[in-house]
């Protein structure tokens, strides 16, 4: 929450690339979490199943790898995606997606995965998952840029409907 959406909640400032000073973060969070220190923070970052967070090389700064709703520039370099990527959602969003495609909404990018299981897990967070297959290589060939976050999530600004294939978990 703090590193992706509301750093001001604890009076933390992120730089233009989303980095926060580790010592400042620890100082501000130790009021709420008395046992939090650099070792525990490193353990949290390394053991996070989605690898949502990253340190800079000397571990003096930390940031979320993607998924921000605050304005930052992660300096991602465009990258050629695999032929297909996947997006997990639920049935109640399908009609809107069929009209407008996948939109980034309040995030910086649409999030896609190379793994079908990951898309199933993401979709299942809100109910019975519906998996969308994205013809990513075709999009890229048509000039739509893709990026890959530090934790291997594929990102793009929008997935138009004509690049989507709809499939539910039981197929």
TrEMBL record:
List the keywords (alphabetical).
Answer: NAD, Transferase
| Uppermost EC category | transferase
Keyword Metal-binding in annotation: no
One short Pfam name that applies is PTS_2-RNA
Q: Which GO terms describe its molecular function?
A: NAD+ poly-ADP-ribosyltransferase activity; tRNA 2'-phosphotransferase activity
Taxonomy, superkingdom? Bacteria
Task: Write the Enzyme Commission number(s) for this entry.
Answer: 2.7.1.-
Gene Ontology biological process terms in this record: tRNA splicing, via endonucleolytic cleavage and ligation
In UniProt terms, what function does this protein have? Removes the 2'-phosphate from RNA via an intermediate in which the phosphate is ADP-ribosylated by NAD followed by a presumed transesterification to release the RNA and generate ADP-ribose 1''-2''-cyclic phosphate (APPR>P). May function as an ADP-ribosylase.
Tell me which NCBIfam families the record gives: PRK00819.1-4 (NF002014)
Family membership noted in the UniProt record: Belongs to the KptA/TPT1 family.
Q: What is the recorded name of this protein?
A: Probable RNA 2'-phosphotransferase
- Organism of origin is Aquimarina spongiae
| Taxonomy of the source species | Bacteria, Pseudomonadati, Bacteroidota, Flavobacteriia, Flavobacteriales
- Per the record, the gene is kptA
């Amino acid at each position: 929450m703090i590193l992706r959406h509301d750093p001001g909640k604890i009076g933390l400032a992120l730089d233009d690339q989303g980095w926060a000073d580790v010592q400042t973060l620890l100082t501000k969070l130790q009021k709420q979490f008395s046992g939090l220190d650099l070792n525990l923070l490193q353990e949290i970052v390394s053991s996070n199943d989605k690898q949502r967070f990253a340190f800079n090389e000397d571990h003096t700064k930390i940031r979320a790898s993607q998924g921000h709703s605050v304005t930052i520039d992660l300096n991602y370099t465009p990258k050629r995606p695999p032929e297909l990527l996947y997006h997990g959602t639920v049935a109640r969003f399908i009609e809107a997606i069929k009209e407008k495609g996948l939109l980034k909404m309040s995030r910086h990018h649409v999030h896609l995965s190379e793994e079908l299981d990951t898309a199933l897990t993401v979709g299942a967070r809100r109910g019975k998952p519906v998996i969308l297959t994205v013809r990513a290589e075709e999009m890229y060939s048509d000039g739509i840029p893709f990026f890959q976050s530090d934790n291997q999530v594929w990102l793009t600004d929008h997935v138009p409907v004509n690049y989507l294939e709809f499939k539910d978990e039981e197929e």
